[in-house]
Amino acid sequence: MESKEVKQLNEKLRLANVKLQECSLEIEEVAISKERTRVSQELHDSLGHSLVALVMHLEFAKNICTTNPLKLEEILAQSEKIARAGINDLRKTVDLLKSEPEVQDLNASLGQLINNFYLFSNLKITYTKSTDIESLNPIIKTSIYKTIQESITNSLKHGNATKINIEIIKNINNVKVIITDNGIGCDNILKSNGLNGIENRINSLGGEISYFSYNNLGFGIKLFIPI
Asked: Going along 159-207, which residue ranges are E strands?
């Protein structure tokens, strides 16, 4: 028969194994939750922007379908291009769940993003930058791109803006990004999934972000990221 001490040790070992299994399950649940959050954010950022752009183009097409057939053809071609890009983004998100793709060429990526709206004569997006932004770490460039992408989406979807200004300034110790629009603005800023996603990205890099807005006076985002 087992001694009392051996029984006690076996019981402690059993309880320790149970505890270890519980911890493993908790860790797995946390990992799954984080992955779901990341995938959700990626879908919101990329596919959400494409859908907003697509809706704007289709509404434009509907308004001129009987008055300007030549322009309509151009708008539909651009709508198809945006839709295909959205499908491509969705495929990338599904295929690259284990590692978020990083932006390597920030200037080219932003140029393509802004070019989505070149057909709209009543929308002006201006973009100025320091000459050496491509020397930034790809992780920082990705966060900047995602922030600008979400800001454009919000300016058009919620602010009904007709002017959006984007400025990227690289200094010795930090990079500063300022995004403003002339939309309807608001006195009380309610943070959406998009704004929370922006904050999470910037905070993870040790950066700071602030918002400024008033009714009928537009909306602005300013962020600093140390480099």
From this structure: 163-170, 174-181
- For the whole model, what pTM was predicted? 0.63
What is the mean pLDDT, run by run of 10 residues, along the chain of 227 residues? 63 61 54 65 75 86 85 88 84 64 88 85 90 91 91 86 94 94 85 81 92 87 94
What CATH architecture applies to the domain 105-227? 2-Layer Sandwich (3.30)
How far apart CA 27 and CA 204 sit, in angstroms, is 21
Domain residue spans in the chain? 105-227
Give dist(CA 161, CA 155) in Å, integer. 6
The residue behind tokens 């909306």 is: 219
Contact 207, 175 (CB under 8 A): no
β-bridge mates for residue 224, sequence order: 176, 208
DSSP state of 190: P
Quick check: helix, strand or coil at residue 226?
strand
